[in-house]
Specification:
The protein is an alpha/beta fold and 355 residues long. The protein has 14 helices and 9 strands.
Length: 355
């Protein structure tokens, strides 16, 4: 075969392959390997004359792919909470705690402190779950009053937090998985009564506790500290705070976040899960909360099943340690009543009480 023709055919096939693959740089390199005369001999004139348009289209496609990849990387990075070291340990509060590691699946392990009730054979237990970007040490102030009331306490570090294992990202559904791993661990402890388990969660931890309460039958009570009503609203507030326009950019971010975490916001939103909770719920919320407005607690109470949700309004903001002393008494009272009544039995619901 004529070497010039053979070369032209090889070139034509190379261009077809590259166009199909959509790699603009490779296309330009392939074109550069041959002169215009060879191009004209192997490509019809109408195709060759449209090459600038083709390159423009490929440039747009390449840019779109690059932007999507970059956006995905930024979103996943944003779903990685800042990992903070424990600011204090149980010994600082004269608590005798055991440091434990428990499995959460896929070979990952969670760190936790377990504070059993001395001398008790089968005590009720309360699992404490912190919020986004915090860790178990933030929940330590709640341990002493719970312990004094006769409850064993498990303080968890969620994945990507504290001393627990890492993940590419974390999310509300993963917080719920971590809570359920902790409940499974408590069920196996001989010093714990597996029929009397409760969860106290803060912020995202509270939202995750409500999600777990829709699918667990061993949770006798949930105490929510500063839970938001809907993650969509939280994300919209963040977008506004960082001056990210919702049309196009913000809409895409929220849509992609749901794809990454594997759950629709509507399916995991506390305002939609609280009516499905299989146990009584106590909502504790600061009237001065600037992160999650107090109105969210009122909406959650109204959304709950009649007679199953109580609400206590306290003075303070979003930090649970700032108002822990205020909600100790109603919290302990709520747990005592919840552990006494049969599961799935409505409790008396009061209007929000300001302490």
């Amino acid at each position: 075969m004529n070497p010039t023709v053979d070369k032209a055919i090889h070139k034509e096939n190379s261009i077809k392959l590259i166009v199909k693959s959509g790699f603009r740089d490779e296309l330009i390199a392939a074109i550069g390997r041959f002169n215009d005369a060879a191009l004209c001999r192997c490509i019809p004139h109408e195709v060759y004359s449209g090459m600038p348009m083709l390159l423009a289209v490929l440039s747009f496609v390449t840019l779109a792919v690059l932007l999507r990849s970059t956006a995905h990387s930024l979103i996943v990075r944003g779903l990685r909470a800042p990992r903070l070291a424990h600011q204090r340990v149980p010994e600082h509060l004269a608590l005798q705690a055991q440091s434990v590691r428990l499995p959460v699946g896929a070979g990952k392990m969670l760190f936790a402190w377990f504070v059993p009730v001395p001398g008790a054979s089968r005590s009720p237990a309360v699992l404490l779950m912190h919020g986004w970007g915090a860790n178990a040490s933030l929940m330590l102030p709640a341990v002493a009053p719970l312990h004094a009331a006769g409850y064993a306490v498990l303080l968890l570090d969620a994945r990507c937090h504290g001393n627990s294992d890492d993940e590419p990202f974390t999310s509300l559904p993963r917080f719920a998985q971590d809570i359920e791993a902790g409940l499974n661990w408590l069920q196996l402890q001989p010093a714990v009564d597996g029929t009397r388990l409760a969860v106290i969660g803060h912020s995202v931890g509270a939202a995750a506790a409500l999600l777990s309460a829709t699918r667990r039958t061993d949770m006798r009570a949930v105490v929510s500290l500063g839970a938001f009503a809907h993650p969509y609203e939280v994300m919209r507030r963040y977008l506004t705070e960082f001056h990210i326009p919702y049309p196009v950019i913000g809409w895409y971010v929220l849509r992609h976040v749901q794809r990454v975490i594997g759950a629709r916001f509507d399916d995991i939103a506390p305002i939609n899960t609280i009516p499905q909770a299989r146990c009584p719920v106590l909502l504790v919320h600061g009237v001065d909360d600037e992160v999650v407005p107090f109105n969210d607690a009122q909406r959650l109470q109204n959304a709950g099943r009649a007679g199953t949700v109580e609400c206590v309004a306290i003075r303070g903001g979003h930090d649970p340690s700032a108002f822990s002393a205020d909600y100790q008494a109603p919290l302990i009272n709520f747990l005592q009543r919840s552990f006494l009544i049969p599961q799935n039995t409505p409790t008396i619901t009061n209007a929000p009480i300001l302490l």
